[in-house]
Amino acid sequence: MDSVNLETLRQAVAWQAAGLPVTLATVVRTWGSSPRPEGALLAICGDGRLAGSVSGGCIEDDLSDRLRTQWLERPELVTYGIT
């Protein structure tokens, strides 16, 4: 596990220990030129804070916006294309 993912998990555990809800996003597949490799992690805190990265920023924004409207109770696969 790379140091960025390890720090992301540490931050997620700290938020959860503080009683805050946390969701983890993981890159499960990439193709072509991808800013982050498979296995990259993003932790999203219930108060909107982010740790880690799964893209160059636009995907983090979209995932955060999705969670503001509906917090996930179970895993969900979200697919993004190249534009």
UniProtKB/TrEMBL annotation:
Transmembrane segments: none annotated. Residues 15-81 form the XdhC- CoxI domain. InterPro entries: MoCofactor_Util/Proc (IPR052698), XdhC_CoxI (IPR003777). This is XdhC family protein. It comes from Thauera aminoaromatica.
